[in-house]
Amino acid sequence: IYSVLCSIHLRMVKFSVILLWFFLSDQILSQDYTVVPVNLAAQGTPQYLFFANATIVNNSPAKIDLFMERIEKNIPANWSSCFCHPKCVAPFVDTIFFSIPPYSQDSITPSFLADSIPGIGTIRVRFFQIGYESLADTLTFTGSTLSWTSINSCMEEPEISIYPNPCSENLSILVHRLNEGYTLRLYNSTGKLMEIRKNLTEQKIIIPLKEYYSGVYFWEFLFNNGTVASKKIVITK
C-alpha cells in the first residue's frame, strides 16, 4: 500500500509540475505591447513626401525594448523610403532598436518620397520585443499616389496658397475654388501627426504656430471629394 501511495504521489507531483510549466510558458511567451494600425495605406501626392503609420502601445509597468527590421521594400525606381524614428534615417538602413517607456506609445513610421509619375509602393517590416523573437509581428505599409491621378483626371484640384513660408507665428492658408469641405493634418519631418482639423469649410484660415519648434513640416489636405494635396512649410523661431 505504501508503494502504491508513493507512486500516486509522484505522479501527482509530475502532473503539477507539467501544469506549472505550461502556465509559466504561457506567461513568458507573451509580448507586452499591442499594435494599432493608424494608417497602413497612405495616400500621397506626386513629388511630395508622405508617411504611413502604426502605433505600438506598451501595456506594461516597465520599459520595453524592441527591434524592427525592414524585410521587403517594393517601390518604384525613382521613389525612396526610410524609417523615421525619432528622426528619419538613411534609406539604406534596414534595422532599428528602440524603447518605449511604461504605459506609453511610439510609432512605426516609414516615409515615401514619390516622383512625378503616379505609382504605388509597399514596405514590409518585422518587429518584436527583445527576448521574444519567436513571437515577432509583421506589418505591411502601402504608399500610393494613384488615387491622386484618377481623381484629378476628372476633377479640378483646388489651388492652395500658404503664406508666409517660412513662418514663425501665424500661418495663413487660402484654398481657391473650394467646393467641398476638407480635413487638414500637420506632420513633422519624422511623420508624427502634430495637429488635425476636421470638417473645414472656410476658404481662408489662420493657424497659430507659436507652440511648434523650428523645422520642416507637411500639411496634408484631404478633400471630401477624395482629392489629396500636400504642402511643405518651414517654421523658424
Summarize the structure.
The protein is mainly β.
Any overview of this molecule?
The protein is mainly beta and 237 residues long. The protein contains 2 helices and 18 strands. A 5-stranded mixed sheet has the order 2-11-10-5-7. A 4-stranded antiparallel sheet has the order 15-14-17-18, with no helix packed on it. The longest helix is centred in the N-terminal third of the chain and has 27 residues, at 2-28. Mean pLDDT is 80; it is low at 13-29 and 149-155. A hairpin with a 7-residue loop joins strand 10 and strand 11.
| Strand ordering within the main sheet | 2-11-10-5-7
Q: What is the overall silhouette? A: globular
| Beta strands, count | 18
Q: How much β-strand is present in the residues? A: over 45%
Q: Over the alpha carbons, how many angstroms does the gyration radius reach? A: 25 Å
How many H/I helical runs?
2
- Alpha-carbon distance between the two ends: 89 Å
The topology string of helices and strands comes to HEEEEEEEEEEEHEEEEEEE
Low-confidence stretches: 13-29, 149-155
**Would you tell me the overall average pLDDT?**
80
Largest sheet: 5 strands, mixed
Structural class: mainly beta
Helix content: 10-25%
Which descriptors would you attach to this protein?
single chain, 237 residues, mainly beta, five-stranded mixed beta sheet, four-stranded antiparallel beta sheet, globular
